[in-house]
Amino acid sequence: MEIETRLPQDEDHPLLFEQGTHGASAASMPVSDVPAIDRASVVDPELLSGNPPEMPEIGELDLVRHYTRLAHRLFSVDANFYPLGSCTMKYNPRVNEKAAAMPGFASLHPYQRESDCQGTLELLYRLRNYLEEISGLAEVTLQPSAGAQGEMTGLMIINAYHRSRGETRTQVLTPDSAHGTNPASCTICGQQSTTVRSKPDGRVDLDDLRSKVGTNTAALMITNPNTVGVFDEQISEIAEIVHGCGAQLYLDGANMNAMLGIARPGDFGVDVMHFNTHKTFSTPHGCGGPGAGPVGVAEHLRDFLPVPQVTRRDDGTYAWCHDREKSIGKVRSFYGQSGVLVRAYTYIRSLGADGLLNVSQKAVLAANYLAARLRHRYHLPFPPPYAHEFILIPKFDTGNVSELDIAKRLIDHGFHPPTMSWPIQHCLMIEPTETESLPTLDAFADALLAIADEIETDPEKIKSSPHTTPITRMDEVGANRRPNVRWQPNVS
Ligand SMILES: *Cc1c(COP(=O)(O)O)cnc(C)c1O
Predict the structure, then answer these.
(1) What is the number of the ligand 1 atom nearest to the C-alpha of 278?
(2) pLDDT tens across 264-278, in order?
(3) By alpha-carbon position, which residue is closest to atom 2 of ligand 1?
(4) Could you give the domains of the chain?
(5) Average pLDDT over residues 404-421
(6) Residue 377 C-alpha to ligand 1 middle, in angstroms?
(7) What is the average pLDDT score of the chain?
(8) How many CA atoms are closer than 13 Å to the CA of 277, on its beta-carbon side?
(9) Tens of pLDDT, residues 32-46
(10) 399 and 458 Cβ atoms separated by less than 8 Å
């Protein structure tokens, strides 16, 4: 006898609003012990709706199943390899979560007295010191909530510095491979960004830099290793050129995963940098937060850092220090994203200095290993060696298959698509990180090689992929131009 085992399919997975039965609820409230009053006696009757709001009515178990089923549809670092270039989608060790959930950290209130939260303050103070050590910079603020806010904070510091010297500088230079947030941060700070060209090998074109830097240049914002995956070893020379005009060197530290324990930005001439804890230090990552973007500065910029700063008093206790006359002020409510900072601290402490060095060495090895396995079938526009990521271009004689098609086809193989079409046209940017095993790296390389073969045998299969997901190829332009964000009952 054949038993039909049919699990609910995605296409018959209704919205919460379409499930449940009238009167069902996932909450049981005690009977109210205060007398009911007429709504119209407290709210202007004109503002009251004639009907109660349409809310889902569903029991607890069905609610749990609804969200569990949706959760299983997600691509996530815990479920799948996620080689998203520039994003460092590494595994988030569970010990970080354990530390952050300790009641002394998790239940603190931001208005609590300093004497009640000495443990958290000590942790933040130590984390500050570790980041100072890792970056080779004089002082770090933990306040900004993300890399992009770190960039804004850094530029505000740089502008305050120039102003303190009686100068207003309105130009910020960014290499053509810069992350979109770099020019955006310039604009937010009221400055113009000017693009500096790169050479064919991915390094900054020094002649172009020399021709554009001047007395109106506030800073050069550089990412190194850069977004095409190469470390620009001209960096000290770049720093000299920039400093020669009185400008500052800003490092976008998103790629610190290639450098931990190997090189320190402060040693190669950087004046300001941000970290992305959610990239380098394994705090959760995605959907816009929560993250943290600590900013480090060289000695001459300390006075301008945001307040309050966590400090250690002579008697060994910890405190928030508010006096810093030239400070740019506060850039975020309270003290920053402290739960994320506990995770970053735990990560650093659980690895130690040797462990962090090992992270970067393995991240670099993993990227170069993948590049070596793929270079016979894919075009690698920049010569190796690579830092912790690399760029490849699908360039084939047949099939008219684009980078988008390959990214989509990878989903059928169980892999999250790499970063696409940035920072150069038609590319895939692959960052494996150090936490992937050799079998996973090999499976990913095998998938890309199989797709390269498939381009010759069945290009249509690639062009119509993915085939294994609830929604196949989407009209992405249409979704952006005409987003439908309203719930509509009974839409099929
Ligand atoms: C991720 C990233 C940023 C922005 O950082 P967020 O933390 O996402 O705001 C900036 N620059 C580069 C190169 C990045 O990869």
Answers:
(1) 7
(2) 999 999 999 999 999
(3) 254
(4) 94-350 (3.40.640.10), 355-479 (3.90.1150.10)
(5) 96
(6) 30
(7) 93
(8) 36
(9) 999 999 988 999 989
(10) no
Instruction: Give the model's pLDDT for residue 13.
Output: 78
pLDDT of residue 8: 46
Q: Tell me the CA distances in angstroms from 52 to 17, 18, 37, 49, 487, one per residue in order.
A: 15, 17, 16, 7, 17
Q: Are 261 and 280 in contact (CB under 8 A)?
A: no
What is the rounded (10 degree) CA torsion for 358, 360, 364, 370? Answer: 70
**Pocket of ligand 1, beta carbon within 6 A:** 86, 146-148, 179, 181, 223, 227, 252, 254, 276, 291, 293
Q: What is the mean pLDDT of residues 59-68?
A: 93
Q: Which atom of ligand 1 is nearest to the CA of 178?
A: 13
**How distant, in Å, are the alpha carbons of 68, 100, 317, 432, 464 from that of 370?**
34, 34, 49, 8, 26
Q: Measuring from atom 6 of ligand 1, which residue has the nearest CA?
A: 147
Atom of ligand 1 nearest to the CA of 291: 7
In one-letter notation, the amino acid at residue 150 is G
Alpha-helical segments (H) within 189-273: 206-212, 235-244
* Residue 487 pLDDT > 70: no
75-130 pLDDT per residue, tens: 888 889 999 999 999 999 999 999 999 999 999 998 999 999 999 999 999 999 99
Spell out a b/e string for 51-86, using b for 16 or more CB atoms within 10 Å of the CB, else e: eeeeebebeeeebeebeeeeeeeeeebeebbbbbbb
Give me the pLDDT at residue 233, please. Answer: 95
Q: Residue holding tokens 């100072």? A: 132
Q: In the numeric block, which tokens belong to residue 168?
A: 């207003």
Residue 115 near residue 278 (C-beta atoms within 8 A): no
Task: Enumerate long-range contacts of 369-372, CB under 8 Å, 24 or more apart.
Answer: 369/441, 370/430, 370/432, 370/441, 370/444, 370/445, 371/430
Find the 204 Cα to ligand 1 centroid distance in Å.
Answer: 20
